[in-house]
Amino acid sequence: MYLGIHQPTWLTRIPDIPLLLSHRRLAGRRTLPRAVTTWALDSGGFSELQLHGGWHTPAPSYVHAVRRYTTEIGNLAWCAPQDWMCEPHILKRTGLTVHEHQRRTVQNLLRLRDLAPELPWVPVLQGFTPPDYERCADLYERAGINLDAEPLVGVGSVCRRQHTAEVQQIMGTLAARGLRLHGFGVKISGLARYADALASSDSMAWSKRGRHVPGCTPSHRSESNCITFALAWHRQVQERLHPGTEPMAC
Fold it and tell me: Which of 26, 108, 153, 181 places its Cα 20 to 30 Å from the Cα of 147?
């Protein structure tokens, strides 16, 4: 499981846990940290679409930023494209259909790989119902992207319903196609249902839970942005996923 984080400086402080950080937390920074662990880049698409009703960041600008992260931060395992989420309230914000969001998601991956084939872009499947995700996979295949040959394929628009039987069906169906899946925002309740269908997942559930926990020091009003709390949460998740094994060092 990739531990989702807010603060770029945590890339320098957590050596043995894979991390996930949003482009929105890095964009515009004059100096960047040097990562001591493997990490992945989220494009920040949910916030971008929710705020603006579309992508305001041009693909070449995003490529320029990711190249900089690769050089200056290092240890980048993979990066998400500028995909288009398909939750109903996001569709309402953009005024577009699920099919159009899927088309734009596929076209963006092609564009990014054309601009920067050396960067580790991962395809992301978007949709809402089980048939939606199969259709999105078919769109990639028709565009010449062999998904079962990809080292990782993301599954988006599942975070707020990741524990449901419908998402379990989605993950099982996609895994049956031979895809190595990454579940965006899949927490322990989702992993309890379909961990065997996933190669990896990420979560910031620790931060949401930490909002309701008093801070461990006088400078912390809550634990929503506490590295100690985040690492303890990650250890607990690892133990639940792999009982009886030694937790990862922190």
Answer: 26
